[in-house]
Amino acid sequence: MRRIRGSFIALAVASLASSAQAQTELRMMWYSDGNEGEVIQDLLTRFEAENPDIKVVLDNVAYDVIQTTLPVQLEAGEGPDLARVTNIKAQAGHWLDLRPYLADAAYWEANFGDYLDWMRPDGSDAITGFMTQLTVTGPYINKTLFDQAGVEPLGEGATWDEWVEAAKQVAASQGVPIALGWDRSGHRLAGPAISFGAKYIGEDGLPAVIDDGFKEMTSRIATWHEEGTMPKEVWGGVAGQTYAALNEEFANANVVMYESGSWQIGQFAKTIGDAFDWWAIPAPCGPAACSGLPGGAAVVAIKYTEHPEEVAKLMEWLASEPIMKEFAERTLFIPGHAGLAAQGLDFQTDNESAKRALDVFVAETAKFADVAKRMPAYQWSDAIYSSTITRMGQVVAGEITLEDAWARIPEDIDQKIAEATAQ
Amino acid sequence: MAAATEASGRTVSPAGILLAAFFLVMRVVDAPMAWLQRRAGLAGVIAVLLAPNLLVFGVFILTPLAMNVAYSFTAGPAMFLEERAFVGLGQYRTLFDCDNYLQPMSCSQDAFWRAVHNTGIFVFFQVSALVIVSLITALVLNREIRARGFWRAVFFFPVLLSPVVVALIWKWILLREGLLNAGLVKLGLTPTLWLAEPNWAMFWAIFVSIWAHLGFYTLILLAGLQAIPRDLYEAAEMDGTRPWRTFRRITLPLLWPSLVVVLILALIRAVQIFDEVFVLTGGGPGSSTLFITQYIYQTGFRNTIRNLGLAASASIVMGLVLILLTLVQLSASAWRERREAR
């Protein structure tokens, strides 16, 4: 009997000891464009080895889940402990202010200071996360097709009209179905529209989208679709603000020129490999500027977490300079870290096209128009992007005229703002 | 094992085992049920037996329905009802704010009215075609044809596929570089952007939906056809009745109850159409295949700034329309039965 009682006591002590050492489990929602899912998993495994009291579960999800499911979870006060998101400003009210938990908040201000406003509510000093990558919107060309067609790629300062003309020549010469591909996204439209003089934000701080610059660019988009330069099935193929991309068609050499952004580099290096030469090119010019649009993805801490200290510990580890450096070099992402930007990176790729594209996009970051720089931190930028792409999609499908679109876009934005601010 | 063997050596069939188990269960529940009936009467027993189902119905149907109605009177980005702004009939007023309901662009929510128009067109053509084709298919499969079992399986097979799979298969066929265009090019014909032209996209949405659901409705009609007594046809044949007259005077009246079921189910399903078309066309091109359910989904969940109040009010309107359509059909069917009884 005494032996049995002893066994029970030993069992109870063991169970207490194990619960005292119990791991804190953090969940991180993550999407991938290229190999960043594998890289972050690798880094997290290392973090867990260094911090045996914290277990991090990486939930790899489709980008659509980040855009549609996560916001619903957040509105319900639920969700993961951390997430990688692109819609960082509009949802800033859900992010955790890490300042009380950070050992060295000054490091964050010094290295991520330029981008902290992108992911915190207006007027706040909160530190809510860090950029996993800076992105720049801009075009790629299939250089091999240009060579085969005997058309010389244009240089810095070439206009949109000149580039599109060149792409049309190449497509006609090589029998390629799509001369100009363009992601179906209001975000992707904004840089070129700004180059044509679009202002997007009024003097009163409210959206003011429809002006001569915006009309110039959207007229061109409509014309390029009408004449078959752009494929109807992307912008006109789906309803509402649904995102559609042409990266796979570009990788299959069915597109001569493709307006997308720097986040495609890693994926193209993997999927295209050395099948053909692909170049990122400087943002084509309009009369007002030669600008892409800055943006990016950030890892943010969610304020509904039950483990803010552990989340902050993980964030500090991930945001540390050596880890950020390794992440950027392995994923071929442009880092949003001032220290790394100053010292330069040794991107881990043998792919000449990828190296060249990284150089081009890094150079583009110095050339953004002022409006372009304001857009990532602007509260209503998503309302603008979603309204513009919805209406332009209808124009391309022949459902409404450009004039109708220009009339309805401001109304749509007003409706969205009214709904978002209803008390 | 086909049969169990008792210790005595007698064999007992599986049906016998099941029967014995059934009586055992009945004996176990008999005592408490008898006690309940003594305490609460027959009505009490009925209430107890219905309670689990009513509970599930209440939790998963009635409560969400009530919440939906409540959300339709609110606005704002908050998820929880108590945090949302009460706007009364404001969302319904926004939905119906229109100069001319036949011209969606004159409406404040033009996407909703486009979805209403598209759904009307889809329902009319899809349900008409589906019922007619199902009837013809059932009539053919009810005849003594060679490999009848095989053909029945062929028509029923698409029903077993997930709607997403159905849509993806057809998407691969209909894309710019898809199977259909490849075939056309091979024949020297011009390829078409089947899913980028509004009329073609609507045609394929209807076609794919019929292809996917035909087997189910055919099966219902086939069962109805097989329930018609053979001697009626034999008597008609002996009288020398022509086939068309036999169909009109015997088949159609006796199949009518099954046809009403098919019509109502097809109508409800068509008004609620979402999954196949969402994957196939995404509601495009433009919004030419945007239907009411997708409008509700996009407005409530997919848009960057979600409008749950507007989505809830649109779903209430859709529910009311469905109830109305079902009542009209049931009344028409009852009227027809009364007329034939006279």
**Share in β-strands of chain B:** under 5%
Helix content of chain A: 40-55%
Mean pLDDT of chain B: 89
Overall mean pLDDT of chain A: 91
Mass-distribution shape of chain A = globular
**Span from first to last CA of chain B?**
58 Å
Any low-confidence stretches of chain B, pLDDT <50, length ≥5?
Answer: 1-7
Task: Give the fraction of residues assigned to helices of chain B.
Answer: over 70%
Uncertain stretches of 5 or more adjacent residues of chain A: 16-20
The SSE order of chain B reads: EEHEEHHHHHHHHHHH
Please list the strands of the largest sheet of chain B in the order they lie side by side: 1-2
* Count of discrete alpha- or pi-helical segments spanning 4 or more residues of chain A: 18
Total beta strand runs of chain A: 10
Oligomer: heterodimer
What is the succession of H and E elements of chain A? HEHEHEHEHHEHEEHHHEHEEHHHHHHH
Q: List the total number of helices of chain B.
A: 12
Largest interface: A-B, 42 and 42 residues
Please tell me how large the radius of gyration of chain B is: 27 Å
Broad structural category of chain B:
mainly alpha
Describe, in plain words, how this protein is organized in 3D:
The complex is a heterodimer of chains A (423) and B (342). Chain A has helices at residues 2-20, 36-50, 63-75, 105-112, 143-149, 160-174, 186-195, 212-226, 232-235, 247-251, 265-271, 308-319, 321-331, 338-343, 352-364, 370-374, 381-396, 402-421, and strands spanning 24-30, 54-60, 82-85, 129-142, 178-182, 200-201, 207-208, 255-261, 278-280, 294-301. With 423 residues, chain A is an alpha/beta fold. In chain A, helix 2 runs antiparallel to helix 13 (321-331), helix 7 crosses helix 17 and helix 11 (265-271) runs antiparallel to helix 15. The N and C termini of chain A lie far apart (68 Å). With 342 residues, chain B is mainly α. Mean pLDDT of chain B is 89; it is low at 1-7. The interface between A and B is large, with 42 and 42 residues.
